[in-house]
Amino acid sequence: MTNVDLASLVRNVPDFPIPGIQFKDITTLISNGSAFQQVITTLADRYRPLGIDAVVGIESRGFIFSAPLALELKVGLVPVRKPGKLPADTYQIEYALEYGTSKLEIHRDAFVPGARVIVIDDLLATGGTISAATQLIEQAGARVIELAFVIELAFLNGRDKLEGYPVYSLIQY
Ligand code: AMP
């Protein structure tokens, strides 16, 4: 497998979406076919031996990575979505972001009881999003085996909010 320098393909956009935020843009990574493939292959190789029942993707950039990963692992994909998007009965949670607050939802019947899942999002910042998602996933009856990110802003110490859960990331700042 080719070894692409993934970090060099992430574009830093200063002051987006608000002043002071250094936005890590993954569009410049996924537009490179070898890099995108390397991300998915690396994650699939890591999770294939673990007997995963489903991949959970966090709206919306998490979907970009969770769908090909689920296909590669030959398991289902469960979306965690922003409010009002999922049509059937949901669990909902409100949480704090690096910028602002938000809510997330999951279908109540998304999992078979005790399903072993990995959760993927594009980026770990403060950990608020993934921590909320993890609570929803457990409320819906699944077991979180690991939290995976393409990018981790390690200086924000998001891992501290995720005590007890294994965290894996491909690129760290
Ligand atoms: P957090 O809940 O603080 O861990 O924030 C994580 C979510 O916000 C992820 O879904 C990211 O897509 C987005 N996010 C937060 N900070 C950044 C950043 N500096 N660059 C790109 N995305 C970010």
Automatic annotation (TrEMBL):
SUPFAM superfamilies, alphabetized: PRTase-like
Organism per entry: Candidatus Chloroploca asiatica
Residue span, Phosphoribosyltransferase domain: 36-151
Transferase listed as a keyword: yes
One GO molecular-function entry: adenine binding
Keywords assigned by UniProt, alphabetized: Cytoplasm, Glycosyltransferase, Purine salvage, Transferase
Keyword Glycoprotein attached: no
Cellular component aspect of the GO annotation: cytoplasm
Family statement: Belongs to the purine/pyrimidine phosphoribosyltransferase family.
Chief location of this protein within or outside the cell: cytoplasm
Subcellular location: Cytoplasm
EC main group: transferase
Protein name, entry field: Adenine phosphoribosyltransferase
Function: Catalyzes a salvage reaction resulting in the formation of AMP, that is energically less costly than de novo synthesis.
Underlying gene: apt
InterPro entries, A to Z: Ade_phspho_trans, PRTase-like, PRTase_dom, UPRTase/APRTase
Leader peptide range in chain numbering: none
GO BP term (any one): AMP salvage
Subunit structure: Homodimer.
EC number(s) stated in the UniProt entry for this protein: 2.4.2.7
The reaction(s) this protein catalyses: AMP + diphosphate = 5-phospho-alpha-D-ribose 1-diphosphate + adenine
Pathway it works in: Purine metabolism; AMP biosynthesis via salvage pathway; AMP from adenine: step 1/1
Domain of life of the source: Bacteria
